[in-house]
Amino acid sequence: MHTVVVGTSGTTAEDVIAVARGNARVELSGEALEALGRAREIVDALAAKPEPVYGVSTGFGALASRHISPELRAQLQRNIVRSHAAGMGPRVEREVVRALMFLRLKTVASGHTGVRPSVAQTMADLLNAGITPVVHEYGSLGCSGDLAPLSHCALALMGEGDAEGPDGVVRPAGELLAEHGIEPVELREKEGLALLNGTDGMLGMLVMALADLRTLYTSADITAALTLEALLGSEKVLAPELHAIRPHPGQGAAAANMAAVLKGSGLTGHFQEESAPRVQDAYSVRCAPQVAGAGRDTIAHAALVASRELASAVDNPVVLPDGRVESNGNFHGAPVAYVLDFLAIAAADLGSIAERRTDRLLDKNRSHGLPPFLADDAGVDSGLMIAQYTQAALVSEMKRLAVPASADSIPSSAMQEDHVSMGWSAARKLRTAVDNLTRIIAIELYAATRALELRHGLTPAPASQAVLAAVRAAGVEGPGPDRFLAPDLAAADAFVRAGGLVAAVEPVTGPLA
């Protein structure tokens, strides 16, 4: 099994995904253990002094003015975890919780939090045992960290609350720890606060969304090419010299992908043979590289923000190398929240243009010779009429999900925390948007492959033929009389979700961007 080593200098997106989705083992480096020990010595020294230090010998948030005596400090740390584990609603997905736990461990291992090495090791032990705390949908404002979600994780470290075992069964966390020989932690000064104060949930969801969106954008380039081909459109708009004079990198990459898919097509350009030749294709076809390209550039910007956050140690207060323990505002989720919202906007627009292409394939007045709704016997058969309805409903929801969460703020903690990022909410809605975009692309794929098979006497590009073969092998049926459509759409969705489109095309085209 792959092992991820956690050091003091952050982590990578690849490591996050390996732990969250691939169940990779986690180990703390010797360097991290040394840094943890040094920072803890600083915290212990400050705890022994009479002067109050936030997070070490004071209350939290609006209660930070109270000095806490030494005999109450262990209780203080336990209490912050218990009281902050106040989430509600459905359970958050296992991969999100594993990313959340791993990223918190990443910050703890930086040596800037003052957590003891034994606590960090217990965090790694939980991940390696496949124990996943129950975290709920609601409870984070994306400021002072993803407080409630991280609190539910810290609660499991204490042997309290509920968690899912490696068998998928939810049980008391204490039972699961005992079964795996893991000793519950007894938190000391600063440790409870340090386990809660980070952007780890929203960052983990950003990293996974970026991975999914990269595959989906390449998949959308392929379906756009299939639709252009099925509509007998012109591939000339994909010429690299046209995109070189507007040098957005994403646009050039999208155009190159589409051109690679269409190479050798026997369908493109046939519009000139019609009685009323088209001078140019509709925007949803002709501007596909511009829209998908802008989304690709948005992904690149979001990935830059994610890389910076992955290299960060987010806590409050932080332990500095010179021995100071200083309060700060680095837990504010604005940088992550903004790009989460930006990605939801880009994804909604990609879904919107894909739906417009699908509708064009189904409309006999605009499909250039294809049967109405790609039906076998139009009138008796409805064909893909309602598949487009489903696609339109998904697009409409994506537009609602594109409304930015980060533009909102609700004051909390008796006005001490009076401006928050709502980054967790931005991440949650982006996950829904990514799911919807997958379905939208699957429906375009379903329509475009059927349309290609209805172009009798014309030969699709070799890459298109590879897609047709792979889709049919995946259980997505081709043209014919009406049948129960939902299973076909589900199979197309599973095919796209698994990266099947890219896997089918690249043996023909070579690697796509």
Automatic annotation (TrEMBL):
Originating organism: Streptomyces katrae
Protein name: Histidine ammonia-lyase
GO cellular component: cytoplasm
Listed Gene3D superfamilies: Fumarase/aspartase (Central domain) (1.20.200.10), Fumarase/aspartase (N-terminal domain) (1.10.275.10)
Catalytic activity: L-histidine = trans-urocanate + NH4(+)
CDD domains: PAL-HAL
Posttranslational modification: Contains an active site 4-methylidene-imidazol-5-one (MIO), which is formed autocatalytically by cyclization and dehydration of residues Cys-Ser-Gly.
Signal peptide: none
Classification via InterPro entries: Aromatic_Lyase, Fumarase/histidase_N, HutH, L-Aspartase-like, Phe/His_NH3-lyase_AS
5-imidazolinone (Ala-Gly) cross-link, chain position(s): C143-G145
This enzyme's EC code(s): 4.3.1.3
Tagged with keyword Cell membrane: no
PROSITE patterns with a match to the protein in the record: PAL_HISTIDASE (PS00488)
UniProt family annotation: Belongs to the PAL/histidase family.
Pathway(s) it belongs to: Amino-acid degradation; L-histidine degradation into L-glutamate; N-formimidoyl-L-glutamate from L-histidine: step 1/3
